[in-house]
Amino acid sequence: MSEFVSFVSSGAGDPDLLTLKAVDRLQRADVVLFDDLASGAILSHAGPQAELIAVGKRARRPSVKQNHVSRLLVDHARTGARVVRLKSGDCGIFGRLEEEMIALDAAGIDYEIIPGVPSACAAAAAAGLPLTRRLSARRVQFVTGADVTGDLPEALNWAALADPGATTVVYMGKRTFPKLAAQLIAQGMSRDTPALLAQAVGHAEQKLQRSTIGALADQLAQACPDQPALILYGPLAGEAEDKHSTGA
Fold first, then answer.
1. Which of 41, 47, 77, 233 is most solvent-facing, going by the fewest CB within 10 Å?
2. What is the CATH number that goes with domain 4-114?
């Protein structure tokens, strides 16, 4: 029996954005270990033979420990089962993919990585935005707004994050954005820099809110949405248009 794992990226939640290869691996899987944000309609592509195992991790909620997830991957693969590890967005972007790869490497188990639509790209598309523009937005950067403790990471490149010519996407940053925005403003970035709060991207309850870094920081300091969210800021973020959008 071969021992093999397919790391499948589910995209931002809309099953229509799955790749053909992702659908094929789900349909043939014997076991699917899935994250919270890679569940719902995405799992309808799994065949009736598949055992579905929830292993999602959500901030400030009871979650499966990472070493347990890695152990499950190894144990199921060693049975010869066709194993899919289903991750949200693109699994290589803030998805702890490398830790699971290391566990499989240590166990001598082969794997493949199937890319998907990153949540940042799905959010920009939903908002009707490009992520880049000649002359005014020449660079895109993705950053996590939370370290393993849930706090704003230390030793961030503040000069880069405050670059007015970049589009910046903050993952997992709704709780720490007030602190992040304060640092950006201290670095010289205007409080009026356009920002976009993108909640539940790719789902029916998707909501896009145009704002500025200053106003959004004030809002999130008062109350954080329960939905998973991305924050985009930079010269293009204020141009968001979508039937689900709301103004600042």
1. 47
2. 3.40.1010.10
pLDDT tens per residue across span 79-97: 999 999 999 999 999 989 9
Place of tokens 């093999």: 4
Residue 57 annotated as catalytic = yes
Q: Rounded to whole angstroms, how far apart are CA atoms 247 and 226?
A: 19
As a whole number of angstroms, the distance between CA 205 and CA 189 comes to 32
| C-alpha to C-alpha distance for 119 and 224, rounded to whole angstroms | 19
What does the alpha-carbon distance between residue 162 and residue 187 come to, in Å, rounded to a whole number?
A: 6
First to last CA, the chain: 57
H-helix segments, the chain:
20-28, 66-77, 97-107, 119-126, 158-161, 177-186, 213-222
* Tokens, residue 63: 């979650």
- Cα separation, 117 vs 11, whole angstroms: 5
State the span(s) of the chain assigned CATH 3.30.950.10.
119-246
Give the Cβ contact number of residue 176 at 10 Å. 20
Residue of 35, 90, 163, 242 marked active site: 35
**pTM given for the model:** 0.89
Q: What percent of the chain clears pLDDT 90, i.e. is strictly above it?
A: 79
Question: 40 has which bridge partners?
Answer: none
| Residue tagged active-site, from 21, 24, 57, 179 | 57
Which CATH code fits 119-246?
Answer: 3.30.950.10
